[in-house]
Amino acid sequence: MTVPREQLMEKVVALCKRRGFVYPSSEIYGGLSGFYDYGPYGIALKRNIRALWWRHNVELRDDVVGLESTLIMHPEVWVASGHVDNFVDPLVQCLGECKRRYRADQLSSDRCPQCGGELSEARMFNLMFATNIGPVEDSASRAYLRPETAQGMFVDFKNVLNSMRVRVPFGIAQQGRAFRNEITPGNFVFRLREFELMEIEFFVKPGTDDHWFQYWRQLRMDWYTKVLGVHSERLRFFDHPKASLSHYSKQTTDIEYEFPFAWGELEGVADRTDFDLRVHQEHSGEDLSYLDPETNERYLPWVIEPAVSVERILITLLLDAYDEEDVRGETRVLLRFHRDVAPVQVAVMPLSKKEELIAPAREVMGLLKPWYRTEYDQTGGNIGRRYRRQDEIGTPFCITVDFDTLNDRAVTIRERDSMEQERVPVAGLVDRLRERFG
Ligand code: GAP
Q1: I need a surface site. Which of 54, 82, 281, 425 has the fewest CB within 10 A?
Q2: Quick one: angle between helices 40-54 and 310-321, nearest 10?
Q3: Is 344-437 in the same CATH topology as 5-72+147-319?
Q4: Residue 288: CB within 6 Å of ligand 1?
Q5: CA distance 313 to 261
Q6: What residues contact residue 357 under an 8 Å CB cut-off, 6+ apart?
Q7: Which protein residue has the closest C-alpha to ligand 1 atom 8?
Q8: What pLDDT, on the 0 to 100 scale, is given for residue 380?
């Protein structure tokens, strides 16, 4: 069943809260705009996203290595990178009744969209959260929470080069928290003030950047469709016109998803030229050039950067997987998650709370736990209700232990999407599930 687009976000937000995926941060104090907490299934989903990204971009490759740099870096990093001067959005405030603040570049009229009031002149607002290092709060102790992880990889470029046997072309990958004091956070976890970035800085020989840019753009698109199972018709490329490029970029393509509110950026792939290594070389006085051992040429590598946040993938997967079906006059809500991202892959349930079913059900759970993310579900009423709950969190298979199990040592596998059931001997269950998961 196709859920009307205008209702989809509201339904997903409600499901996320009801089923333990996402909660507003500090909710008992009224919440905090742009900040969210992740419940047991939300954190499981995030961990799966992170792990799949790391697996495909680091572990399965021999030309990308990992890094973890600090959230607070030397303040000069952000001067050199241009963030202190350029990481700004134009801010306007309503001078009428409501006093709301907006990003001027997102408004289509010069009156307040909320109350029709007059708007102030735009002023540039820097999105970095500032803090102080040490006990004295003055400009000398000022530091910033990083707005991207990328700079850590540029600043550590020489360390990686000298300590690892890497040769251009190669990449450095990092996952970690980033902070942006967004003027207009919103659309649930689409635009946050605290989020988790996953970025690769892929260093290439000057002149080969066009080739590598095309390579990463396609590879990243394929990751969404082939690894995460996102509907390909809801994804597209958007090539930024020259005028809207960031200060460091020669070319940028966004991989966009058709969100219920509009097509929007899921991931950005940017050709950052040698901008970052060059400015850090100038500001730090350290030689950041690379000596090609084959040609003896010395140069500053150019950089192709795929960058995405875990939360933007999370909201994409939830929206993409959400579905409703009419089953015998009742609405069945389900998340059609790909098996690899599903927070729970298999749920084991005894048909009833009767003592004699609990031991075999727990035994089945013990068999599956080493292989699959397995949940034991004894509560929650009759079996139909428990199936519905698992459908809503996107569990691909439920295994039911019933009274026949006590005699035939077999259980029922129920598949989420088709709801089809299959009777399988406990002894062959792990193998059968392996076949079914494919
Ligand atoms: N180092 C490059 C960089 O940070 P960006 O386009 O500003 O580029 C990269 O951000 C990705 O981070 C975006 O494609 C999006 O997935 C995610 N992102 C950016 N701002 C975000 C926010 N406020 N909340 C959640 N995710 C965000």
Answers
A1: 425
A2: 110
A3: no
A4: no
A5: 16
A6: 350, 351, 401, 402, 403, 405, 406
A7: 307
A8: 62
**In this structure, which long-range contacts are made by residues 92-95, counting pairs with CB atoms below 8 Å and at least 24 apart in sequence?**
92/119, 92/120, 92/121, 92/122, 92/123, 93/119, 93/120, 94/118, 94/119, 94/120, 95/119, 95/120
Alpha-carbon distance of 357 to 407, in angstroms, equals 12
Which residues are 171's β-sheet partners? Answer: 64, 202
Q: What distance in Å separates the CA atoms of residue 179 and residue 194, rounded to the nearest whole number?
A: 5
The pLDDT tens digits of the residues spanning 141-200 come to 999 999 999 999 999 999 999 999 999 999 999 999 999 999 999 999 999 999 999 999
- Sorted by where each begins, the domain ranges of the chain are 5-72+147-319, 344-437
Cβ-based neighbour number of residue 327 at 10 Å: 12
CATH number (3.40.50.2300, 3.30.300.20, 3.40.50.800, 3.40.50.1360) of 344-437 reads 3.40.50.800
Q: Does the beta carbon of 307 sit less than 6 angstroms from any atom of ligand 1? A: yes
Give the chain's mean pLDDT: 96
* Phi–psi pair at 178, nearest 5 degrees: -135, 155
The per-residue pLDDT for 330 is 94
State in Å: Cα 309 to ligand 1 middle: 6
- Ligand 1: nearest atom to the Cα of 265: 14
Interval 294-307: pLDDT, tens: 999 999 999 999 99
For the CA of 150, the nearest atom of ligand 1: 1
Q: 5-72+147-319 maps to which CATH number?
A: 3.30.930.10
Give yes or no for residue 267 CB within 6 A of ligand 1: yes
